Amino acid sequence: MSNTFLADDGTIRCSWCQATEQYIDYHDNEWGYPVADDQTLFEKICLEGFQSGLSWYTILVKRENFRKAFANFDFDQVASFTQQDVERLVVNAGIIRHRGKITATINNAKRAQDLIKEFGSLASYFWQFEPKRDESLDPEILATCPESVALSKDLKKRGWKFVGPTTMYAFMQAMGMVNDHALTCVGHEKSRQLRLALVRP
């Protein structure tokens, strides 16, 4: 099965994104492009946790609702959420009403504050787990990698929740820590150039 497809607009893209317009937009504008902004990183890691066991489409169509519900993923605000906020969120039909994932997000906001105290930024912490790869080769189709396993283990030790190795690999893909666009995909070279230009924190 091919890892790319030729879209109606004449563009070659990764085959996974052809299912919906939302996937194409996400693929073209976000997935695999490096992020060093702490609030965006926190949003991405939280949404990957909510996605666990569900399709990414479910998360994409609810993303604006998640942003409203969780103060645009401002972790300082989310860290101050109370039990009253948990009860409010559990009945919010616009998001995934999973009590464990909701409480994990509030917990993880507090743990994010801890990381910033220690490392100066979330970006400084996360980017130290960047795998070393040859981007001239087609990426392997992976569910985890040694670095995502290490990241998961370290975050769990620090008290984070819903950060298993597979979830952390999806997070690494989403934040552009790895360039998993197929070699012939239009996004591969864009990701490569952006990753080259990125000043690692």
From TrEMBL:
Identify the keywords attached in UniProt to this record, alphabetized: Glycosidase, Hydrolase
Question: What EC number(s) does this enzyme carry?
Answer: 3.2.2.20
- The source's domain of life comes to Bacteria
User: Its Gene Ontology molecular function terms?
Assistant: DNA-3-methyladenine glycosylase activity
Write down the InterPro entries for this protein, in alphabetical order: Adenine_glyco (IPR005019), DNA-3mA_glycosylase (IPR052891), DNA_glycosylase (IPR011257)
Which Pfam families does its entry note?
Adenine_glyco
The entry's protein name is DNA-3-methyladenine glycosylase I
The organism is: Paraglaciecola aquimarina
